[in-house]
């Protein structure tokens, strides 16, 4: 190595340290930015963890028992016993039960027609009706599934009782023994909170970075730095570094909170999570820097960050499964780093995945990090020119 090249590298390292120190001090002194970077992700994770809950329980139900027999009362008691449906209103007819749903006083209705108990006692087909409000598909699907399971089980139990009373052998059964891996209780928070972490990181880091560079341009401090011999790449790397460490601290803070508050397991190596987080932050910060280079002021930077974040969240698979999207939209998710980081976080925390298991996600995040930072650097140089 020639002395000139060694001296150039030494100079670049000194410049990098100076930019990192300046950016760190400037960020630490701004209480609003520190609150947004540190406290906001923790608070929002806790709020989202409790608010985003797809576990359907205690659905308000109206009951129209037009038979008023001992059999109808017993079947209603069994149906309401598991807690999926909660009896809130009594209706005198099926029409009144429908009206209670129209008035939003109930989300479901159970209508038992006259003669229900007599049909059961005589061994005839006994029919009843379950009316469900379909405006909320998740709640409606869970209610319909719970009612279907209950009545299928009751029909099988009644058939066994009648066969036993006649002295006949029971029909052969096909039993299923499900075994649920990774989330045995099927709790929503265990699945959603790791994805929420990925969502909050992209919101905070992208928008804060985009607005930060635009703010310096408006205040005139960026021009003062540009008259120095600091190279654009060194300047952008120096500006990113403090936010990378803050992002890693956020992840550690939020992971601690989610394991303690929401009982999210921590099965995989933290090293894989930390390495993936660094690559992911390079992508989000690179996007923020790129947005700032194409924006004239902070308002444009904020709008540009929002226009990136919203599609990234919707196409990440955090809220809705990617496989449920149209094929042409699924192809677009491959360009979204948020998708791969959400898969990485869930893989490490829930499935105990390591570096070998997460190689595709890590490779994708590395490519996106290099690409976004390279685009931001090129755009920054052109703007200087």
UniProtKB/TrEMBL annotation:
What keywords is this UniProt entry annotated with?
A: Cell membrane, Membrane, Transmembrane, Transmembrane helix, Transport
What PROSITE patterns does the entry give?
Answer: ABC_TM2 (PS51012)
Gene3D superfamilies found in the cross-reference section: abc type-2 transporter like domain
GO terms for MF: ABC-type transporter activity
How does the record classify its membrane topology?
A: Multi-pass membrane protein
Pfam families this protein is in? ABC2_membrane_3 (PF12698)
**Under what name is this protein listed?**
Transport permease protein
